[in-house]
Every structure is written in structure tokens, then in C-alpha cells.
Task: inverse folding
């Protein structure tokens, strides 16, 4: 057996690898001052792509978006995750962070109330007009909801199913998405038969023409009050503030409305009355 | 194409591999030459990441690096920020996760070196370091390259640990595998497909190069012998 490797060349290769590795090790990590990192609840997946793009062209600053479930972000931020802004699908998480002194005081901005819908792919023959009672249809094998432990839309979905007295009967058919966007993906891809999703996702181009939905009456689940907050650890509070202001501009509000985020006048009032959903 | 994720992933993989060469070589050497009775315990510890779910590893790394642990506090006291959700934290977790992929091929190559050559080198008065550099390393360079390339490829494809420790921050901890996950969740299947194809092609090419380089030294498939 002759040696297959030419040792000199192998040594050179090793040296080259070392050199490349050294280059990458010392290559400066990017630290752009005019950049904000936003942790956004997954129901904002499509809306914020649009909003961030507009903010970027208008101000020239960079917005870096990370989507996930609000409860997950809540835990990460408590552990020091370096975000500037946090947009929660449940204002309760933002308030808990405020109580823990992790937010810029008084920066909580409630921008909308999230709406829960039941969505089925186009091909489905399910009669959505029956509301959540339609879930009892024996043809349904899998129902996608977000994980109620840490995703606000998931706990709202469970509350709505309890309200409709179907939860105990369909419990065994539930599949849990890590967040509401993944839940939508489960149904959109046809892997679940029906999903309880966020209105803001099903209005997006990728889902709009692919299926039908029915809104679940807002009284059937605790309100999903959406709130943004600036985090205390932010190194760029000015820009974070600028982004919050941008959200309040009429044009942005109109854009958000097209994605199903409207701020009903009673949101603030209902919230003050103490009827917010409790985070888990 | 998400270039910042691609660049970040390459950077992470190279940093991890370079660190593994420095950390893994002494471990591999020790494993191949020691006659310690309890050596198998160390071998098991090194191999643990092969069988542990990434969530177990990610969870413990997160706990160990967090602000409630001595390591986390010590790190925070002189850098001003914690380790989780940073590139450094990700690199440390990945080094642990890829350790067996570097150490095992290196140890296998080192232990195949003819002991007579090592003894001869010692008798002729060469120091241990010199013996390693002039005798052991040249004869097992294939194993070292295999270890480097395998841990490189493994770090490229890592997902669970990155998700748990990294927090999916663009440009800092959003690697290619996480970006694919994100694309799927945003229903951007075309984007997911582009990144997935790239990762698959790259991994295939990397592995093919390695196996073609040194089939003799460390065979994954038994029929190569």
C-alpha cells in the first residue's frame, strides 16, 4: 500500500487552513452603530418585513429582525439576549419585563389587538361557518395550534376551544407549532388539516390565495394585546425610539391595518380594566 | 441568498475547527498513548456529543454560560456582556459539540504510528514536542485533516445547539441552518431551498474531498479497507 497523501502538500494545506482560520478569528465582528435588532412575535413575520423595509429606505438605518414566540423571547431577554426592541403578542410579557427593570421606563406601546382565525387550505371541504364546532368533523386528523406554553396565540386558541366546548374532544388531534408562523406553515403545507392562526399571517400573500378562513369571535378568548417595548440593554435607544415613532405614523398604521393589525379604541380601555391575558 | 448567514456560518466553522485543533490534538495524543486504566471514561466523555440530543447539550451550555453560573459571571465581569446569544458563546458550544469529530480521527491516526519510530526518535535525543512535530504529526497528517474537515462540516450543519444557545440574531448567531428554518416558517420555500441546496452541495464536496484524500487512514465505510 503506497501512501495516498503527499505529506508536503498536506502540510501546506494544513498551514493554509490555519491561516484562513486565523483570518476569520480576528476578522472584526460587525458593530454597526446605525442598526437595531428587533425581537418580533411571529404574527409580525410578514407585516414587519414590509415595515422594516420602509423604515430602512426612509432613514437609511438597518433593522435586523428575529421572529419567534413571545414567551421564548421573554425568557431569552431575561437571560440577556441583545435586542433593542421587543414586540410581544401579549402585552403581559412586556409588562413583566418592565416590572423586572429590563425595559426603558414608559416605552411600552400597544399597537394592536391580535385576531385569531381558523384557516383551512383551499382543497378542504370543512364548513367553516360552524365556527370552532367544525373541528369535530371526523375527517380532520390534525389541528395545528401554536404551543400554548409560550406562544400567546396558542393559549388563546386553547381558550377559544374551551369556550366552544370542543377542546377535550379534539385534544388528541392537536399538533403544536413552536410559534404561530410555524403553526401556519404546518397547515399551509397541507401537513395539518386545519389551523388556528393569526389573522395577520393568513392575510399575507403567501397564504391569502391558498385557503379560506373564518374569524373567531374576539369575545371567545382573552384579548391578544400586542405591544412593543424598548429594552434597557439597548445600545441604540434613539434609533429604537425612532422605530416606535415610525410605527405610529399614519402611513405605517395603514400598512399594519392591511395586515390585519388594527387598534380598536377599546383595546386600551379593556386593558386598563385589567382584562388582559395572563402570560404563562 | 442570505450572505450574512453564509459568511457567519463559515466564520463559525473555521473558528471552531481552529480551536479544536488546539484543544483536540493534546486530547487525541493523550488518548492514543496513555495506558491509564480509566481511559475509557475520558473516551466516553469525548464521544458524548455524538449520542446526546443537541437540546441536552444546549441546555447545559446555556446554564453553564448564563449569568447565574460562576463561568458566566466571570466572563461577564471582564467583557461586560454575557456569553449566551453571542458569537463567542456559539463558538464555545460548537467546540464542545464537534469535539468527537475532531478527536476521534486524530486519535485513530496517532495510534497507528509505528511505536518503533517514536522510540527511535526519543533514543536519538529528540524532545517529546520534537518527536510529535517531526515524527507523529507527519505520519498522521491525514487523520488531522480528516478531523478538521469533519468538525468543519459538522459545525456547518449544526442546528439544535445553535438554536438554543444562539438566539437567532441576524449577523451574529443566525447560521445557515437557522436561516433555512426561518425561511420555512416565513413560507419562503424558494429561499429555504436555495440555502438548503447550497449547504448540501458544500457538505457533499467537503466530504468527498476528505475521503478521496485519505481513505487509508480513517475509513467510515468498512469496505474501504
Result:
Amino acid at each position: 500500500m503506497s501512501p495516498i497523501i503527499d505529506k508536503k502538500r498536506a502540510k501546506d494545506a494544513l498551514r493554509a487552513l490555519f491561516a484562513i482560520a486565523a483570518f476569520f478569528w480576528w476578522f472584526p465582528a460587525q458593530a454597526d452603530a446605525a442598526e437595531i435588532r428587533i425581537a418580533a412575535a411571529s404574527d409580525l413575520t410578514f407585516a414587519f418585513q414590509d415595515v422594516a423595509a420602509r423604515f430602512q429606505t426612509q432613514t437609511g438605518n438597518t433593522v435586523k429582525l428575529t421572529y419567534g414566540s413571545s414567551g421564548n423571547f421573554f425568557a431569552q431577554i431575561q437571560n440577556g439576549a441583545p435586542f433593542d426592541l421587543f414586540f410581544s403578542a401579549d402585552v403581559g410579557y412586556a409588562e413583566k419585563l418592565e416590572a423586572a427593570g429590563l425595559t426603558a421606563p414608559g416605552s411600552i406601546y400597544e399597537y394592536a389587538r391580535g385576531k385569531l382565525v381558523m384557516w383551512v387550505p383551499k382543497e378542504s371541504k370543512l364548513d367553516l361557518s360552524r365556527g370552532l364546532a367544525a373541528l369535530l368533523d371526523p375527517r380532520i386528523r390534525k389541528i395545528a395550534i401554536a404551543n400554548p406554553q409560550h406562544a400567546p396565540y396558542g393559549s388563546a386558541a386553547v381558550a377559544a376551544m374551551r369556550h366552544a366546548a370542543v377542546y377535550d374532544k379534539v385534544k388528541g388531534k392537536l399538533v403544536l407549532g413552536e410559534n404561530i408562523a410555524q403553526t401556519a406553515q404546518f397547515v399551509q403545507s397541507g401537513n395539518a388539516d386545519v389551523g388556528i392562526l393569526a389573522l395577520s399571517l393568513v392575510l399575507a400573500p403567501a397564504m391569502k390565495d391558498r385557503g379560506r378562513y373564518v374569524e373567531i369571535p374576539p369575545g371567545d378568548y382573552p384579548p391578544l394585546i400586542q405591544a412593543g417595548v424598548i429594552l434597557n440593554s439597548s445600545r441604540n435607544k434613539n434609533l429604537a425610539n425612532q422605530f416606535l415613532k415610525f410605527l405610529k405614523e399614519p402611513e405605517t398604521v395603514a400598512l399594519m391595518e392591511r395586515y390585519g393589525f388594527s387598534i380598536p379604541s377599546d383595546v386600551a380601555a379593556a386593558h386598563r380594566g385589567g382584562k388582559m391575558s395572563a402570560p404563562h | 441568498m442570505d450572505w450574512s448567514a453564509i459568511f457567519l456560518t463559515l466564520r463559525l466553522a473555521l473558528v471552531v475547527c481552529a480551536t479544536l485543533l488546539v484543544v483536540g490534538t493534546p486530547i487525541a495524543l493523550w488518548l492514543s498513548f496513555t495506558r491509564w486504566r480509566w481511559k475509557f471514561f475520558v473516551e466516553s466523555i469525548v464521544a458524548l456529543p455524538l449520542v446526546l440530543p443537541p437540546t441536552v447539550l444546549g441546555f447545559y451550555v446555556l446554564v453553564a454560560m448564563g449569568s447565574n453560573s460562576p463561568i458566566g459571571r466571570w466572563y461577564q465581569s471582564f467583557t461586560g456582556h454575557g456569553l449566551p446569544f453571542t458569537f463567542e458563546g456559539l463558538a464555545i458550544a460548537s467546540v464542545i459539540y464537534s469535539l468527537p469529530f475532531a478527536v476521534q480521527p486524530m486519535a485513530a491516526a496517532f495510534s497507528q504510528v509505528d511505536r518503533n519510530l517514536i522510540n527511535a526518535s526519543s533514543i536519538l535525543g529528540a524532545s517529546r514536542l520534537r518527536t510529535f512535530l517531526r515524527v507523529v504529526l507527519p505520519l498522521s497528517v491525514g487523520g488531522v485533516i480528516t478531523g478538521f474537515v469533519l468538525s468543519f462540516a459538522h459545525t456547518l450543519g449544526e442546528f439544535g445547539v445553535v438554536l438554543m444557545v444562539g438566539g437567532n440574531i441576524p449577523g451574529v448567531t443566525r447560521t445557515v441552518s437557522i436561516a433555512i428554518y426561518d425561511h420555512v416558517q416565513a413560507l419562503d420555500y424558494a429561499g429555504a431551498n436555495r440555502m438548503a441546496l447550497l449547504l448540501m452541495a458544500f457538505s457533499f464536496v467537503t466530504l468527498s474531498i476528505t475521503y478521496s484524500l485519505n481513505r487509508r487512514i480513517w475509513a467510515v465505510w468498512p469496505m474501504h479497507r
Observations:
- The CA atoms of residues 157 and 207 of chain A lie 19 Å apart.
- The beta strands of chain A are 35-41, 62-68, 85-88, 109-114, 116-121, 143-146, 174-177, 194-198, 211-215, 224-230.
- The interface with chain B takes residues 1, 3-5, 7, 10-11, 13-14, 17-18, 20-22, 24-25, 27, 29-30, 37, 42, 45-46, 49, 64-68, 76, 79-83, 179, 181-182, 184-185, 188, 204, 206-207 of chain A (CB under 8 Å).
- Residues 28-32, 266-280 of chain A have pLDDT under 50 and may be disordered.
